[in-house]
Design brief:
Number of helices: 13
Radius of gyration: 23 Å
Distance between the termini: 89 Å
Number of domains: 2
Structural class: mainly alpha
Helix content: 40-55%
Mean pLDDT: 82
Strand content: under 5%
Low-confidence stretches: none
Number of strands: 0
Order of helices and strands: HHHHHHHHHHHHH
Length: about 250
């Protein structure tokens, strides 16, 4: 008596009731290949008992239509359509607290897998990635152009109108809280420092060599152009400084 061969891989799921245009199979396979090809993938995914411990302890699962178990199951069964669908919204609900990784009996890391999926969404220029990252464009601009992130007095409702009602979540006495930390140069935008010119150029070179700027160009071409102009100018300023030092030493 022959037994039928079974596989955990779901070759086709589909949703006959959905009006959403079908994504080409080749595109789904390319996206999954990028996820599976990441060197972290096999370390973060070891199997799944479908026990639900990860979801039961997940803070985000209590407030959003999100389940770490669902993400693991989609990847474990190679449900390409489900993976693509989750990348349109659900993966952005994760807070990256890694409670799931600490609880999983299989030592999976749903949070780590979601990080890979987010990076893949950025690589493929998905609209979900653009929508999520768009409000943080000024943070990226400040980080690259000055070497800083944000000073507390920049996080205001007027300064972040595009955050909508979410800005109410950060209406805390941040300046007071920051002053409790013995780093006075972080108190306000007036006292926030600019990093050394050489360090700034080195940081830019790291982002350039590691592909961060290529990802940024995919997500926000205008921001990429602005940052490129800023850093081209800084590179030239640094080269002029190096040339002046060489002439002085000659």
């Amino acid at each position: 008596m022959e037994h039928g061969h079974s596989s955990r891989v779901q070759t086709f799921i589909g949703d006959p009731l959905s009006d959403t245009p079908e994504v080409p199979r080749a595109q789904l396979e390319e996206i999954f290949a990028d996820i599976q090809g990441d060197m972290r993938f096999n370390h973060e995914l070891n199997g799944c008992l479908n026990c639900g411990i990860c979801t039961a302890t997940c803070p985000a699962a209590h407030y959003y239509d999100f389940s770490p178990r669902e993400i693991v199951q989609l990847l474990w069964t190679e449900n390409l359509e489900g993976i693509y669908d989750a990348m349109q919204e659900k993966i952005w609900s994760c807070a990256q607290c890694y409670t799931c990784a600490a609880r999983c009996p299989f030592e999976n890391s749903p949070g780590g897998l979601i990080m890979i999926m987010r990076e893949t969404a950025i690589k493929h220029g998905m609209e979900s990635a653009k929508n999520v990252l768009r409000p943080f464009s000024r943070v990226m601009l400040k980080l690259v152009s000055t070497g800083n992130q944000l000073a507390p007095d920049m996080i205001t409702a007027d300064g972040f109108a595009d955050w909508g009602p979410n800005i109410s979540k950060v209406q805390a006495p941040l300046k007071i809280l920051r002053k409790a930390i013995p780093m006075p140069t972080l108190n306000t935008t007036e006292t926030a420092w600019e990093v050394n010119l050489k360090t700034s150029v080195e940081l830019y070179t790291i982002w350039e060599m590691t592909g961060v700027l290529n990802q940024l160009e995919t997500i926000d071409e205008n921001l990429f152009d602005v940052i490129s102009d800023i850093m081209d100018e800084k590179k030239q300023d640094y080269q002029d400084f190096v040339d002046e030092q060489a002439e002085a030493d000659a």
